[in-house]
């Protein structure tokens, strides 16, 4: 898919994508600057979309690390599979709330999310929070990008430590919530 087809797909499914544009390079760099990739062997991305964050993760992760990318849009999944054919990158066309089925009892060192939590029904959203917490290593980080500072208060029910950052270098300006 070319850039304009990706944007059309994003826009046509705004109720599940929750965005009118993909994350800027600057936002991705800032988000990933909070993640420690050294020794992170299992990495999970929630909401792969066009692959803008996926690409940033792959550029930073160790060669022997594994990346699981969850994405519910079939066209986005097909595109991600073509763009990232590496053996250690698994594009999973399923909801993030089923992450436990794919992690097979293992824990993630990093969970990086751009899911539009404010649009996800409460029950599914809580499942994603609960499973992210229980499948994250003790010293692991869950990092979320979002457009509302208020989302931070939902994370407070699941994570002990929460910090936030902000960038104007995205449309719209975005928050980064760093939880562990
Ligand atoms: C705001 S877009 C972000 C796309 C891209 N990662 C970026 O940063 O620009 C959110 C993505 O999450 C996907 N998504 C929404 N709900 C999901 C769910 N329950 N599980 C997995 N992916 C989901 C959407 O299809 C969309 O591609």
UniProtKB/TrEMBL annotation:
| SUPFAM superfamilies linked to this entry | S-adenosyl-L-methionine-dependent methyltransferases (SSF53335)
* Location of the Methyltransferase domain: 43-140
Keywords, sorted A to Z: Methyltransferase, Transferase
Q: Mind listing the GO molecular function terms for this protein?
A: methyltransferase activity
Q: Which GO terms describe its biological process?
A: methylation
The record's section on Pfam families has: Methyltransf_25
InterPro entries for this protein: Methyltransf_25, SAM-dependent_MTases_sf
Has UniProt tagged this entry with the keyword Methyltransferase? yes
Query: Per its record, how is this protein called by name?
Result: Methyltransferase domain-containing protein
